[in-house]
Specification:
The protein is of the alpha/beta class and 445 residues long. The chain contains 16 helices and 16 strands. The strands form 3 sheets. Strands 3-4-5-2-6-7-1-8 form an 8-stranded mixed sheet, sandwiched between helices. Strands 9, 10, 11, 12, 13 and 14 form a 6-stranded mixed sheet that branches. A hairpin with a 5-residue loop joins strand 15 and strand 16. Helix 2 crosses helix 3 and helix 14 crosses helix 16.
């Protein structure tokens, strides 16, 4: 690489120049909560380019991630090509969506910056990174950071920046709250009033075309903005998560198992136990076929001895048939069928989710399972022409959030029909319910 410095065509805004860039140079972990059009992608990507160009490490690797690869390409690929084009000798690949910077040291390979999506996690499993940007981390699958990114930066003590605009109190909120209280990390939140980035006239025009919720969320970074049409609020979930019941409190209540099924693909099969007001930590399975899921359900039945087992019939016909073939009685739960209270709910799915909400309000206790608690606050609701509750469709939710609420659906299906417990046959327990679940050797991943 020539001794003369390459001039990248990036002109940082004042906040980036005076506050954010210095902070990112100081810490390994940071969370940036910013209003729309703040320039979080451009600013963070240019900081990454600068660190990559100056890296003295052997074969350095960096990555920018968005929830989906197509989204990442749309948002960041052109920026990466544009800003690295000023570096003599840079090579870009449209196939791998990567830019390789020339090395400063003979015998070493240059730094690689790649663009990727959290929807393809296995493509990055086992690799290493010197630095990672996670754009809109709140819309990524929850395990992407913990299972893929965090281990990948460990060996080389790489850095990770979580950036985004609020969309409810999700992973972005959790990281922001954690980082802002840690002196060794950096967290910031900027609204349109803080930055002045958007011209005042244009800002007023934008507000005319946006709902009050959208204004609070997109322009003023209000994490609670979208909760106005959320069926189960985060506060309700937090209260339930803090409750604990003893065995005696629920021993006369019905024991129920809920099963949400998926055959391969990205969705998961989930089994959850509930007894009265106490729900247990769900078991989550990926990549299992119907016979394997059926075996798991049978194991749960034999261990928990439930009064009723509800299995989602949407994809669970094979599981249901197999469990019945083995001599067990289960109930097919069709989410799309007519609600028991058809004057109030558009279908059974809306009804059971609202029953879940009412169960929480009446004192329901949730396990300390972050993903389950997050999913319960995902669905929004509306009303149809007959003033019946309509729950947001699972497909639309997956498009909006980036994942399906499989764990929460498994809990909701336990309310598919009333179950009346046989008091004399109820299980007895020698310990209290801490709702955390099972012994470690029994947990499946």
């Amino acid at each position: 690489m020539p001794d003369t410095a390459a001039v990248i065509p990036y002109h940082p805004r004042v906040i980036w120049r005076d506050v954010i860039h210095p902070a990112l140079s100081r810490v390994r972990f940071a969370t940036l909560v910013c209003h729309r059009r703040f320039g979080k992608t451009v600013g963070s990507l240019n900081h990454m380019i600068r660190l990559a160009a100056d890296s003295l490490r052997p074969a350095p690797q960096y990555a920018y991630f968005a929830p989906y690869r197509t989204q990442a390409k749309l948002i960041a690929w052109e920026y990466l090509k544009h800003y690295t084009s000023a570096i003599p000798g840079v090579k870009t690949s449209e196939v791998s969506l990567s830019a390789t910077l020339p090395t400063k040291h003979a015998g070493r390979s240059g730094a690689v910056i790649m663009i990727g999506g959290a929807d393809k996690p296995d493509a990055f499993r086992g690799t290493y990174f010197d630095g990672v940007i996670l754009d809109e981390i709140g819309q990524m699958r929850r395990n992407f950071y913990g299972e893929i990114v965090r281990p990948a930066i460990a060996d080389r003590r790489g850095w990770a920046w979580r950036i985004g605009t609020p969309k409810g109190r999700n992973a972005l909120y959790d990281f922001y709250e954690a980082d802002r209280s840690d002196p060794d990390r950096f967290a910031c939140l900027y609204t349109v009033d803080d930055t002045g980035v958007i011209d005042q006239g244009e800002l007023e025009e934008m507000k005319k075309d946006m709902t009050p919720m959208e204004i609070r969320q997109e322009l003023y970074c209000d994490f609670t903005a979208s909760e106005t049409d959320v069926l189960i609020t985060i506060d309700l979930v937090s209260g339930a998560k803090s409750r604990r019941y003893s065995a005696g409190d629920v021993m006369n209540s019905a024991r129920v198992i809920g099963v949400d099924t998926a055959r391969y693909g990205e969705d998961r099969s989930v089994i959850i136990r509930r007894q009265g007001l106490a729900a247990f930590r769900p078991r989550v399975f990926r990549g299992l076929n119907n016979m394997e899921v059926a075996d798991a359900v049978v194991w749960e039945i034999n261990d928990f001895r439930p009064h009723c087992v509800f299995i989602d019939a949407g994809r669970g016909e094979g599981v249901i048939d197999r469990v019945r073939q083995l001599g067990y009685s289960v109930v097919e739960a069709n989410f799309g069928e007519k609600a028991m209270d058809s004057a109030r709910y558009s279908n059974r799915r809306a009804e059971i989710w609202d029953k879940t909400r009412r169960w929480l309000e009446s004192g329901g206790s949730l396990p300390d399972d972050e993903e389950l608690c997050e999913e319960l606050s995902m669905p929004t609701y509306s009303f149809d022409a007959s003033n019946r509750m309509v729950l947001e469709k699972k497909e639309k939710m997956k498009e909006r959030i980036g994942k399906s609420p499989d764990l929460a659906d498994a809990l909701a299906v336990t309310f598919f029909s009333p179950v009346y417990g046989d008091v004399e046959s109820s299980c007895s327990y020698s310990d209290s319910y801490d709702s955390s679940g099972y012994d470690d050797e029994l947990v499946w991943n």
